Amino acid sequence: xxxxxxxEAPAEVDLGGEARSRRADWGFRALVTAAGLTVLxxxxxxxVTTSLRGWPAFEEEGLLGFITGxxxxxxxxxxxTFPMLYGTLVTSLIAMIIAVPVSxxxxxxxxxxxxxxxxxxxxxxxDLLATVPSVVFGLVAxxxxxxxxxxxxxxFANLVSPVPGLNAxxxxxxxxxxYITAALVLAIMAIPIITSIAREVFATVPETDKxxxxxxxxxxxxxxxxxxxxxxxxxxxxxxxxGLGRAMGETIAVALVIGGAxxxxxxxxxxxxxxxAIIAQQWGESSGLHQDALxxxxxxxxxxxxxxNFLARVVVRRAEIKMKGAHS
Amino acid sequence: xxxNRRAIIGGITAGTxxxxxxxxxxxxxxxGGSGDLASGEINxxxxxxxxxxxxxxxxxxAEVNPDLMVSYNATGSGTGKSEFGEGLNDFAGTxxxxxxxxxxxxxxxxxxxxxxxxxxxxxxxxxxxALQLPQDVLAGIFGGTxxxxxxxxxxxxxxxxTLPDTAITxxxxxxxxxxTTNFSKFLExxxxxxxxxGSGDTIEWPGNAVAGEKNTGVAQIIQDTExxxxxxxxxxxxxxxxxxxxIENADGAFIAPTLEGATAALDxxxxxxxxxxxxxxxxxxxxxxxxxxxxxxIRTEYDDPNVAAGVKExxxxxxxxxxxxxAENNFAxxxxxxxxQAVEALNSTIAD
Lengths: 328, 352
Fold this sequence. Notes:
Mean pLDDT of chain A: 88
CATH superfamily of the largest domain in chain B: Periplasmic binding protein-like II
Number of helices of chain A: 12
Family (chain B): Belongs to the PstS family.
Radius of gyration of chain A: 24 Å
Shape of chain B: elongated
InterPro entries (chain B): ABC_phos-bd_PstS, PBP_domain, Phosphate-bind_PstS
Strand content of chain A: under 5%
Number of domains of chain A: 1
CATH class of the largest domain in chain B: Alpha Beta
Number of domains of chain B: 2
Domain PBP (chain B): 38-321
Oligomer: heterodimer
Largest sheet of chain B: 9 strands, mixed
Structural class of chain A: mainly alpha
Order of helices and strands of chain B: HEHEHEEEHHEHEHEHEEEHEHH
Order of helices and strands of chain A: HHEEHHHHHHHHHH
CATH class of chain A: Mainly Alpha
Helix content of chain B: 25-40%
Number of helices of chain B: 11
Helix content of chain A: over 70%
Shape of chain A: globular
Organism (chain B): Glycomyces niveus
Pfam family, one (chain B): PBP_like_2
Mean pLDDT of chain B: 87
Number of strands of chain B: 12
Largest sheet of chain A: 2 strands, antiparallel
Distance between the termini of chain A: 21 Å
Largest interface: A-B, 37 and 42 residues
Distance between the termini of chain B: 48 Å
CATH superfamily of chain A: MetI-like
CATH architecture of chain A: Orthogonal Bundle
């Protein structure tokens, strides 16, 4: 709220002389800079060490072969990671398709519609959801959801079987451990994150904008559409990106429910695997080149996360320029 | 705060030292007859497959010699071996033999077989409570060429069973696993013409496979999927109440997975000079063909004589009195001949 206001020059406080305060200022600056650099250093070191250890796998397959190869066969020293890349992207994308609208809905409900007292309870519950460990989500999914939902999947597959296109995506399967179940779990895990940030973003919309929309005769929905959403677009993309980051990196919950197949399928009711999950699944017994390849997957996942975040930033910048241009 | 913490750590270290010294003094008195018992700490890591047996043995041994603290960390055979190579553990547990790229130097270790266990082929097919699977049919099922339960090859081996046309779902391991290694090695040995997927701790399973985490994950899939069939160790199959199939052995007999069948397989197995042996598809009318061995790797040279004595004492216990704990944890004890060989190897590797 006050973040956008230019900070006023702090009132002069005597800390025992000009020199001492300058020294304190310098010390503070050095400390904070060091803290900031630590993040960069840690990230850089992770990248360097993992790349070094994963190098033999990249060398064996070639960088392109490692990323685009569709066969993962540690027995034969063949390491193609495309099925896992596909699994990561598909499950995260579906999770976002579910989680983003739901989260924005919850956030709008909290900030604009809910009564002050209900608001408090909902916020608490959402924050609680964010603290549940992912392994708990995975176990609930596998012990409770999977046995119940499998017939529902089959029912849906039967329902859409005459529709071309859809029947390839939702085809027969004999298991509930598949892309969709993993995506559902990821969506539920991403919702609290996206909701909390979206709520903060909506709270920064100036009250005057909202009142202005009402004054022009806007209904509540028109006010949300005309005043809140354009103002919050960048923040909402940021919120979604954090959720996406969580979804792409989530390991244990996905490892439990995705079915661990190293093949890929357009049928979302078939088992698959993700990059993070396969590392966790296969690490224990791995050795030699297999282990290098698992580390290399980590590097690949890191690179893809960076690329996606970069793209998101570009999207936000472009959209903001467009919107601000249209409004001013 | 910092000072406080340091003081606490110091206190703990001093306490441990004092305790250790006191323990050293007391060690000899308790077991007068058998000479001085080792004391100190032994850290081991490796295969998760025999973890239940090792855990029981460690607990029982703590009563025999409370001064020797043994810990076994079930990290998986691969991690156990690489930690062994890096000198991070005092002995390693492994289900698979040492390969060139495991990080363990040739000549730096000795295999000590400890126990073995049958790997069951468990299934979920309501109305069918007995199933006989010839080796080629089993390879066909897990290789993806036999895809429904009423397949003529299954029906031919089970004339009395009413087999439905349910699709077969394979329940396999999502984690790299010594159980997978042994199961695929068996199929490779038993049915080389039908089984084309090779062997290893991960297999490229056909499209009708669903993978679960560890033995319990596979058991869970079998339980909640009608038409599922998978490989699970005996302990977890028993605990989950799974129905198990009888598997054709090398002599052509159909044998149910039992500890007796596993021991019979050990009797029929050829033991190599380095004490590695292969009980998979072993000869013998009573032998259960999918019996998996597990080993401990001990070092040929220990830097610390106390550690050497501790390892020797505990591994010796595993091979002698500890064997009695095998059956109650669903593992098969070693036959006497192999046990004697193992004790002999232990004694010659770690001299007193």
